[in-house]
Amino acid sequence: xxxxxxxxxxxxxxxxxxxxxxxxxxxxxxxxxxxxxxxxxxxxxxxxxxxxxxxxxxxxxxxxxxxxxxxxxxxxxxxxxxxxxxxxxxxxxxxxxxxxxxxxxxxxxxxxxxxxxxxxxxxxxxxxxxxxxxxxxxxxxxxxxxxxxxxxxxxxxxxxxxxxxxxxxxxxxxxxxxxxxxxxxxxxxxxxxxxxxxxxxxxxxxxxxxxxxxxxxxxxxxxxxxxxxxxxxxxxxxxxxxxxxxxxxxxxxxxxxxxxxxxx
Length: 264
What we know:
flat
């Protein structure tokens, strides 16, 4: 059985997405309680494992999840949310503005701001995307090329993360079995004992030192499948700028979720 180390979290204040959570998409109309008056972006999730109520911010879906223990009453849950409504509204208000993949928007790709330039031509048979110094040039026959832009960025993230992972794996003297990129909700990266590493493709929007830190973190797990002192010492040696990269991810990592349309 593959053993997976505790992943590098994308947002510590986010609800678990595990199977112990049962979410209600229309909870505001249930229970006869006015949850929507607190915020229309407040979502309920009943958990079999939770021992106490908690509020979790999910920057990707731009919601706050109210995690409720299975045996707790909805009346108690509502009162808890009501008592914390200022926190809920403040966290939602402070979320960075979303940036869609459309003409004229600026994306920080691989540490450099690049403007999306969409040139529409109905005679084209395919969409071609070119990463330039200050632009992301999109030549397309699509009225909305956002899906193509997203696919291009995912492929670019896979390429760059794979390249850097190979370099870091060589540095720590371990063999890397595979690199995958996913659109994860709750982690920037994870590593298994057999050398398989997964990353969030959204790291493509992180500054170079933060990008480098996450790769160093996961590749250090190729040696130490824990977060021991030995792990952190190796991670620091493997990082381009350990302190700055780690600090940026802890303080600003959630902002990477704002780029592109939300997934269903």
